[in-house]
Write a structure and sequence with these properties.
By secondary structure, the chain is α/β, with parallel strands linked by helices. The protein has eight helices and 14 strands. The strands form three sheets. The chain has a ten-stranded mixed β-sheet, sandwiched between helices. The longest helix has 28 residues, at 64-91. Its main location: secreted.
Length: 413
């Protein structure tokens, strides 16, 4: 299933006016042809009036000198009007006074303004500030390898995959993935299979097989976020990274970690995706509110999930948020409209997309009616290790395909 990005609607900008004919003198109510009569207030006129009174030279009931002056002024204004008209005509060449040409000019202006308006709302690609870190001893293109680096006072690990055909002459997107509670980086790498996508991927390893924000976490608030930033800095040093296309995806506790990254690091990721996310309070508090944007967000959750219930609940002494409520919070941070558009997909899957989000971003929720606390499409049975009992796996969709299709369609803006 291919996700679609909504486009914001915009009113067509007003048509720019073209220069019209130059207006002639405005007659006033006296009918003398001059409008405001200010010529009679001119000092020079008053001097001439005294002379005319002495001469007694009248023409048609008015002093002849005044008539001559008005004729002279009329000729001057007429000459100026003609000259301005010539300049206006010349300024519109080759359209001139040709109505068909003027109409074409106006229509062309409308088209140009429409293009300018559409371009003004097209997001401009931005680059995340990744910094630099130690050079990684990575695998050859088309292979994966366990790596380690120092982050804070710990040595952290992950499984790094470099896409086949990688060359330093071309920049590549980066995807960091976060396993579920009691899972491992290698296990997530194996069942998710993102190493087969055209992206530099690191399956991150949590301390004690867990991530911050959950009640059972072995790391302090901010420690796994630092690990994330340190890994990205090292990747930026080692490879040619497309810094406008940094992504994150996670399962269960890892989905909660991804939600926290979107909350705390909105300028870093273009898009994130969470599957069966465990949204404890530590994953959704103290969000950065003045970023001007939030990453695009895909949330996939099964309604038959008995470990992290679709409607929210409590576990390990802490409460977690309902999947739909979490997505609505994300939609609000992305300035989307409050009511989503719902589409029925294959099987018992409902796709909900919040429209009119910030330019370049989208928020989508896939409600999987036949899905439990597992990675949809995983035939290995390895996902959802934290479950107390075997849970149903949905094959109505393939989560890896859905996640990558969504992520790869977004850039940092």
């Amino acid at each position: 299933m291919q996700q679609s990005n909504p486009q914001e609607s915009r009113d067509l900008p007003p048509v720019r006016r073209t220069s019209g004919p130059v207006p002639g003198p405005r007659p006033d109510s006296t009918g003398d042809g001059w409008g405001d009569g200010r010529e009679d207030s001119w000092d020079g006129d008053r001097e001439d009036h005294r002379d005319e009174d002495h001469d007694g030279d009248y023409a048609g009931g008015r002093p002849a000198g005044r008539v001559r002056r008005r004729v002279t002024r009329s000729l001057g204004v007429l000459t100026a009007t003609v000259m301005v008209g010539v300049l206006v005509w010349a300024g519109h060449s080759p359209a001139g006074e040709n109505q068909a040409a003027l109409r074409e000019y106006r229509e062309q202006t409308v088209r140009e303004n429409a293009v300018a308006a559409s371009e003004s709302i097209v997001p401009t690609a931005a680059e995340a500030d990744l910094g630099t870190g130690p050079r990684l001893d990575g695998p050859a293109p088309g292979h994966s390898k366990r790596i380690s680096l120092r982050s804070g006072d710990r040595t952290r690990e992950g499984v790094l995959s470099v896409p086949e055909g990688y060359t330093p002459e071309k920049s590549y997107p980066v995807l960091l993935t976060y396993h579920g509670y009691r899972e491992t980086a290698q296990g997530f790498h194996d069942y998710a299979g993102f190493d087969r996508k055209p992206v530099i991927t690191v399956s991150m390893q949590g301390v004690g097989d867990a991530w911050e924000g959950a009640p059972y976490s072995k790391t302090k608030d901010g420690e796994d976020i630092r690990f994330t930033r340190d890994m990205l800095a090292a990747l930026n040093t080692t490879y040619n990274v497309d810094r406008s296309r940094i992504y994150a995806a996670g399962m269960s506790n890892g989905g909660g970690m991804v939600a926290k990254l979107a909350c705390r690091e909105p300028r870093l990721f273009a898009a994130v995706a969470a599957v069966a996310g465990a949204y404890y309070s530590g994953t959704r508090t103290n969000c950065v509110e003045d970023a001007g944007r939030a990453p695009s967000f895909l949330e996939i959750h099964g309604t038959k999930d008995e470990t992290i219930n679709y409607g929210g609940g409590s576990r390990h002494g802490g409460t977690y948020m309902a999947a739909r409520d979490l997505v609505e919070d994300v939609a609000s941070r992305n300035h989307c409209q409050s009511t989503p558009v719902t589409t029925a997909l294959a099987g018992d899957v409902r796709r909900q997309q919040w429209p009119m989000c910030s330019p370049g971003t989208s928020v989508v929720h896939l409600r999987v009616g036949d899905g439990g606390h597992t990675w949809p499409g995983d035939a290995s049975g390895a996902s959802g290790a934290a479950s107390d009992s075997a849970e149903v796996t949905s094959y109505s969709l393939d989560a890896t395909t859905e996640v990558w299709t969504f992520l790869s369609g977004h850039r940092l803006t």
